[in-house]
Design goal:
The chain is of the alpha+beta class. The protein has seven helices and four strands, in the order H-H-E-H-H-E-E-H-E-H-H.
């Protein structure tokens, strides 16, 4: 299809483009007036017990602690863990992000720090969700050590480095509007071309059918000789002479 044919097809099916533009405008309303979302975040760390060689717990953050922390994170992200948090009243969407010292392809968890995030339209609900997740994390760390019979003086502990604080999430409206415009163009132009092709093909079939009907029934009807259908009689009932009837 040449550029000229493309333009003519779009002009013929302009109403399809109008429908696509209306749908894009309707989709732009939530972008221009979005629902406010608040993100709350806190950072916790799993500390080793205090020893004579390492009185500063934060100076003795070994990779095994990160492995334990990651195991607890997996428990909280399991269906059972999410059900436990829902039972505690957590309705916000939450995420547990362990400190990754590697890459996204080959992650390495060497530092036992954890970032807890929660999203909610209410900032207080987001902060409460983060606190509930941290409490559940600490409970599971304690339960894990109790199950292994670790003495209280030798147990790991959870410390909160950064308290939860909710911040309003501001999106980029220009990017969203540009994406909607691109989506409307990508969907509207093919839809207009498809509609034009369908209607042109249908009209062509209709014209071909009309031409075929005219060609089959377009002959001149044969003329009936005078008196042929009356048995050689005139309308008055008189018999036509044989010479006249034959002529």
């Amino acid at each position: 299809m040449s550029p000229g044919e493309l333009v003519r097809a779009l002009r013929r099916r302009w109403y399809v483009l109008v429908v696509a533009a209306v749908l894009a405008a309707a989709g732009a309303v939530p972008v221009l007036r979005p629902t406010p979302v608040h993100v709350s975040a806190a950072i916790v760390v799993l500390k080793p017990p205090v020893t004579g060689r390492h009185p500063n717990q934060l100076a003795n953050l070994q990779p095994p602690l990160a492995a334990v922390s990651y195991a607890v994170v997996q428990q909280l992200e399991s269906p059972e863990g999410r059900a436990e948090l829902r039972s505690k009243g957590v309705t916000a969407d939450y995420r547990l992000l362990p400190r990754n010292s590697g890459t996204s392809v080959t992650p390495r968890y060497l530092i036992p720090s954890l970032q807890v995030q929660a999203e909610h339209t209410d900032p207080e609900a987001a902060n409460a969700a983060v606190r509930a997740v941290i409490e559940a994390y600490a409970r599971r760390v304690t339960a894990l050590q109790e199950a292994e019979g670790v003495p209280a003086a030798s147990r790991m502990s959870v410390d909160q480095l950064v308290p939860p604080a909710a911040v309003a999430q501001q999106g980029t409206k220009s990017r969203a509007l540009a994406g909607l415009a691109l989506l409307a163009a990508v969907a509207g132009v093919p839809a207009a071309l498809w509609t034009d092709r369908l209607l042109v093909r249908r009209n062509r079939r209709r014209r071909e059918g009309a031409d075929a009907g005219t060609g089959s029934g377009g002959g001149t009807p044969a003329q009936t000789p005078a008196g042929a259908g009356t048995g050689g009689r005139r309308p008055g009932g008189e018999r036509v002479p044989s010479t006249v009837a034959a002529g």
